Amino acid sequence: MMFRKFALAGIASTATLFATPAWADTLIDNVVGITINADGEVERFTGLVISDDGKVRELVKSGDPRPGSIDYQIDGEGRVMLPGMIDSHVHVMGIGFGQLTLDLSRTNSLEEALGAVRNFAEANPGRPWIIGRGWNQEKWGLGRFPTAAELDAVVSDRPVWLARVDGHAGWANSLAMSKANVTRASTDPNGGRIIRDPAGNPTGVFIDAAESFINAIVPEPRPSDRDVALHKAQDVLLASGITAVADMGTSVEDWQAFRRAGDHGSLKIRIMAYANDVKTMELIAGPAPTPWLYEDRLRLNGIKLYLDGALGSRGAVLKQPYHDESDHHGLALLRPAQLRNLMSRAAMDGFQTAIHAIGDAANAEVLDAISELSETYSGDRRWRIEHAQIVDPDEIVRFGQNGTIASMQPLHQTSDRLMAEARLGPDRLGGAYAWRSIAAAGAPLAFGSDAPVEPADAFAGLSVAISRTDADGEPFGGWLPGETISRDVALAGFTADGAYAGFADGRFGRLIAGERADFILVDRDPMLSSPQDIREMQVLETWIGGERVFENK
Amino acid sequence: MMFRKFALAGIASTATLFATPAWADTLIDNVVGITINADGEVERFTGLVISDDGKVRELVKSGDPRPGSIDYQIDGEGRVMLPGMIDSHVHVMGIGFGQLTLDLSRTNSLEEALGAVRNFAEANPGRPWIIGRGWNQEKWGLGRFPTAAELDAVVSDRPVWLARVDGHAGWANSLAMSKANVTRASTDPNGGRIIRDPAGNPTGVFIDAAESFINAIVPEPRPSDRDVALHKAQDVLLASGITAVADMGTSVEDWQAFRRAGDHGSLKIRIMAYANDVKTMELIAGPAPTPWLYEDRLRLNGIKLYLDGALGSRGAVLKQPYHDESDHHGLALLRPAQLRNLMSRAAMDGFQTAIHAIGDAANAEVLDAISELSETYSGDRRWRIEHAQIVDPDEIVRFGQNGTIASMQPLHQTSDRLMAEARLGPDRLGGAYAWRSIAAAGAPLAFGSDAPVEPADAFAGLSVAISRTDADGEPFGGWLPGETISRDVALAGFTADGAYAGFADGRFGRLIAGERADFILVDRDPMLSSPQDIREMQVLETWIGGERVFENK
């Protein structure tokens, strides 16, 4: 950072010179500062002092005298300062590769998507595969899955493979299926399904575990591709005001890319990583979680497990059959004993466990497992349930037990609400995206985006969290508005509680003395703005560890 | 280190206080200092100044005035100071696991070995497998390989698996073979051989690639086992005065253990790593060699390739048949095109290549490949040939070309000489362990031990390098004594040239200003002692980066 130069004048005037060497401390003054404080409450301040080690030295409150031993001073010009946003559920490399592949998430119809595929293929003649993601037949109002034949009509000379918006389904053209030797005779794997026509022929969409038919033959990215993707992802996140993330399902290749960036000094963002399986967890970290590396920028906290799929693709495991598919309960990805064995394997070496559970049956299963495991693995475990979208209302109280953390994504609520109504019917929504109830039960809410499934937009997340309305303000008054939460809890969910959920409390997440000086300067006060205005909030600057890493010019 | 404390008095008296903060510089005075200097020549000194960053600030020569700005002073008490030894060919984890498993390298007969196996099994009742290494039927004078039946007589209730001293053969008991489903019907893999009786039944010894029958079923060590092994290896090396090593054939699990030690601050020794295959190299380092990590303690330089096996197990590839097996030329592990493809794959991304070549045909093949590759991959490549034991005398001159480095192990010469005479006959030894001729051709000699194949004993290596006699002084006058080298070249081979061979020149390997202060204090002067006395040299202290990491108490 520009302010690190040895400060001659400062030294000469510093009384403590001979006890400890003095360095350059910087005051950012004249800000509308907002943070969660040590008591978990919102606190306001007008200035912040960064010590030379990149940590917060102290906050300045309105009316306080100017702090001593300041070597540099920056005028905040009255801008709003917030702690850096923490996104507690992202797929870092997915965000990065999303930047390098075809993004269909903004398409509003099948025709629009097919046009985008054609254009992308023409614009990238050298790519042996056309890879993309983000389609959503629900958003298109298609009423069915798209087909390989539809893709063939726009690209038939190269394999095409497009992930659904939630990552739980993939759409292939015929050449991709042919290269993967998928035929009528191919059988559905455990935890997966090949969509077929009435005659039994695969039609081009592969659900959950069946995606591996095609994934297995997609060329692996080179390490240099991964490095590019990581830096793209970092750029996206820093520009969005996100200074730390939980990476859900880190592969060893991902981890090595993180380390390369750390080793070369180009890792700016903080990554709390959760390995994608036990083997990877062990290979990365060995007999215990890694230390915090690169000045609190990287740690392998534990493991991510998948217990079920997604609601959109009907992979989420429900207690009662799907309202819109009456013979189907979803697809469990782990048997109860497998879940407990994997959780034990992690817990015995002090690793944290983050378990994807979307359906009410899956959430019940995880809560059971946490309860059982907690008898053996006591202490501060911070069991994380990822998504916790559909919970039996009778079981919400259990989120307050055993230190369970609810890692939830507000934007999923607005994206999913119509689909959730279709999947569950009107009578089974009492525990859907139930933020207020879960918080009331005592579980910390760690908020995230699930990017690239949703945009990594914490401000949209804040807006939804307090309103349960979408970008168009729909539905008026909010969807199941009893589950909105206060602005304070929402801000904590995207800052302090996200750090807590990743064992980073005390290191970052709050602007309090001794934590890393990770903050953003924005153009409005989220505690005073309307939900719609919060969505429009602009990041002016992003700082991590006392260094400015993004500036909106 | 004990001298790092902020030096109040030093600061107060230092004129440069306000320009740059002054730290503690340490003078180690009154030593008999010896190093290779910047001109590649032996230079003597009487004192060494370590700057606070752990580098050499300056050498003090006899008659020089006392250097200025010294905060601490240590009396060397007239002891001999050498650069830390660099062992250019070790298997770090092999050394460590060797400390944790049965060591048969000092057994002098089959009976002695069987007794050791029995004792080890009794002493370790909880181990599900009895794992060991170091046997040598040649040393035992057995005249044949040992058998499973002989092992069964001492341990039959648990599988036993014992690696030969050179790692190129393994000896199993019947239970291990049965667990591995090895039967009469098992066929020899490419590059490997199952030793059989006249009826075709496997007798218990597996050569080279055939070792994988058993290796595949040996339980993998846990990461915590690896961490213990690494620290055991480090202890052995530091106590031997070795401050840096080239690790030949680093697996990703090995690398992660190195990183864990680095991340926790417990990695003292410097490791120049060579990955065990392309996939590992890419996974570890991505698109280019890693930076130097942990203050020059770890770097992935490139890849280790095996072109042939060992002479003892008749895996080395010879131009003419083995003298003692007239229908056998050895076992090539890579085809010529494979070798070139792998070398290209590494070179295109700037990785260094270290190729195991023992037989004269293998060395010729590598020299051909280097010559061809050098046309495409120009610049400072430092192609390494590992072992280069048997070279066609007509081809030795080619070691001076294309920057080829000969990474050789003096102790192999004394251990192997009788075996080499048997394998090659008396008329084909002209290019055997031909240090002087290879150096005369212009190739740097990087000396090592191949530990745990031989002990990590650089002083024994120095002794052999200048004498070509073994611990008993045999044979009188040295074996093929024309290939002895000077003390200066031998010292460089275990210090400066070892650093050069790992792209570490300028970082460590010499005691010159700006390089890391890696040195040892020993009890005699290797430039003046007899070869037998050099073998007895004692390490009194080992220092790395200006910190004492071993003291012989």
Automatic annotation (TrEMBL), chains A, B:
Amidohydrolase domain location: 74-550
Gene Ontology MF, one: hydrolase activity, acting on carbon-nitrogen (but not peptide) bonds
Cross-referenced SUPFAM superfamilies: Composite domain of metallo-dependent hydrolases, Metallo-dependent hydrolases
Keyword Cytoplasm belongs to the record: no
Residues in the signal sequence: 1-24
UniProt cross-references to Pfam families, sorted A to Z: Amidohydro_3 (PF07969)
Keyword tags: Signal
Residues spanning the membrane: none
Entry superkingdom: Bacteria
Name of the featured protein: Amidohydrolase family protein
Native organism: Altererythrobacter rubellus
